[in-house]
Amino acid sequence: MINGCRLCPRECGADREHGKLGYCRMPGKPYAARAALHYWEEPCISGEEGSGAVFFSGCSLRCVFCQNHELAEGRAGKPVTEERLSEIFLELQEQGANNINLVTAGHFLTSVIPAVRRAKEQGLMIPVVYNTGGYEKPETLKRLEGLVDIWLPDYKYRSAELAQRYSHAADYPAWAELALNEMVRQAGKPALDHRGRMLRGVIVRHLVLPGCVSDSKDVLEFLWDHYGSQIYVSIMSQYTPLPHIAAYPELNRRLTEQEYKEVVDYARFLGMEQVYIQEGECAEESFIPAFDNKGIERNI
Length: 300
Description:
By secondary structure, the protein is α/β, with parallel strands linked by helices. The chain contains nine helices and ten strands. It is 30% helix and 16% strand.
């Protein structure tokens, strides 16, 4: 599937198997920039022990506000083999991780899938989380059936106009809906353990953008109407305007408390109960991890 790549909705056709770069800016073999315990996911994912997050390089979206832009643009990370990926998953389990968190792995699934299978054969027992921007093809996600326990997608926009302006993907809302349908089908009913850690389920993240309260409400209404209590929703306030956002002056500011409150109040109005919200101090650049290749190389 990477010899003329059609893994994501871009269907760029790049011969990534032979080293050509796809729209994701990556060749076929996986690159990753960090593998470590991560404490800033939702409480049911990170818990006190941390989530075993593996941050993959590259991305099929072009979000102008991306906080992990160095990673998404392929300027961080190093090659990692399937065998090493399996070892990384097991090492994170040994470190006490609550789960294995595959962050933006979709364009590397031809390697990630066998790596997860190998790790499970060698004793990986903790849940596997698929952490994605939501711009996915359902037929690609079907290949993960039986391997992923927790789905952690974004649902960024309902507006095709906003999706085009801020992520260069006018078709994002349509693909995100199809992908979410497949995730919910595979996950089934959400399940948490006695500590409140998620074992199985779907958590949909939505980042509230400055000036986009109306679209955020549309997102919440869509999620409630279509999925109800089948999913959890995480309404995020952590938007941080980084220097490269200057070309989009409407986004070159912090989200106001009133904007975020209006979105959260709308979730309550709809009757949503399985919702995570963030406090104001979450909007800090310090929550962006260092993409310094920690945990990628084997310790000798």
